[in-house]
UniProtKB/TrEMBL annotation:
Species of the source: Lepraria finkii
Keyword Membrane: yes
The protein's name in its UniProt record: Conserved oligomeric Golgi complex subunit 8
Keywords, ordered alphabetically: Golgi apparatus, Membrane, Protein transport, Transport
Protein location: Golgi apparatus membrane
Source organism, top-level taxon: Eukaryota
Biased composition (Basic and acidic residues): 474-485
Similarity annotation: Belongs to the COG8 family.
Membrane topology, as annotated: Peripheral membrane protein
Residue ranges, annotated region (Disordered): 464-485
Amino acid sequence: MADPLYELLAPYFDSPASPRLVPSVQDQVTAKYLNRLSTLPLASLTSSEPQSLAQSSHTALLSLQSLSARSNSALVASSEHLSSLRTTLPQLATEAESLRNDIPELDEQAVAFSEKYCRNAENEVLDRRKKALLMARNVDRLSDVLDLPTLLSSAISSSTAQGPSNATNYASALDLHSHIKRLHLLYQDSELVNSIYQQTEEAMQEMTSNLISSLRAQNVKLAAGMRTIGWLRRVAPELDGNSSNGEGSLGALFLVCRLAALVSMLSALDPLRDLADQETAIRLRDGNSIKKGTDAWSIGQQTERYLKRYIEIFREQSFAIVSMYKSIFPSGPDTTASDDLGLKFKSLGLRSVSQPTPTPQQQDPLSPLPSALSTFPLHLVGLLTTTLKQYLPNVRDKSSRESLLTQVLYCAGSLGRLGGDFSLLLADLGQDDNDEEGDGHGEWVEVMKKHRVLAGKLESLASGGSVRGMKGLADGRAKSPNEVK
């Protein structure tokens, strides 16, 4: 039905009255409309159908106008692109032909690149790139590792600024040093780790110097000394070598540092010592004429002041050094420092000390050295006796001499409680080189008798509950016999 109807209506197209193209019979819109016309009654073809077509045409016209208003720029651009297709398509075909010709060469280059930079092949450029990528992925870890020497130096500097009593950051510095040592053991071939380890060792050497310097301070308490020695054992384990007394070289180092502190404290008495030297020069110049004069008391007054202060400092510091040493370095099982010290004093014939039977280790001349404390008190006593022999003859007043000798006896008793009683070494101190009567030993015997009487009285006071007397006995303060009475 549609085809005869199409044949009937086709002549009306492309006519002067209606100059339009003839629609194709295969067009779906045309076929659909012809099918619709076949269903309409004849009367509607002249009445309602023209109005319906006019309305549809008007609606389509409005839609086209609205579309052209909205898509004006797109339509213009599409028109321009459509006009340029005549030149673009031939150019695209030419470039596609060129690309097709270049594909074999590109394939050869890709194969060559793949063979050159293969993972299994050794290539310097590829290795550098791999290292760069690895560093980029681990930049945070590298930054933390590079900051380790700075953190270590900061911890050491802050601890040094706080002083030996408040050096709390030394423990953190030691932990950092242990961590860096572990890294060095794990990555010995790494130049970066080796560089960090070298910087760390320099910082630890500085820390070792600071710790040793802290041992030379004047007022080092037992707790601070034990902490410092403990840190030195971790920082410099080579100083804590194997030895029979279990102290290594740290014991000798500790005694040397404390001796330097004692010498520093005694050097503060140089103004008084200069006055005592002047009195010594006067005594040596005038000889025994001072003894017969009327200014025997005034000529030794400055020397007495110097010796009193010297003996007081010596007593306090010597007792503190030896007691602190014994607390920090306990004696070993084979031999003790006090036994060694007693043997040293007995070898001088000064005190009857029970000598233990020498062990095979002690008889062996190649055995490890004894404790440093075995000879240290002898050096201390040598400093004291040298000073007393040099300046004690300047003091001519009997009560002043007895007061000084009594103070020395208290010092010997104080050190004697630690195994270093040197009272018999002082027997020759009372003998004056210019003393014609030779009553120096008699003076010493008299001082010893008075000292024993005073010691007995103090012991009786201590046993009777006198705290004051006990404290005086323990401190060993030097007083003249008249002052004690």
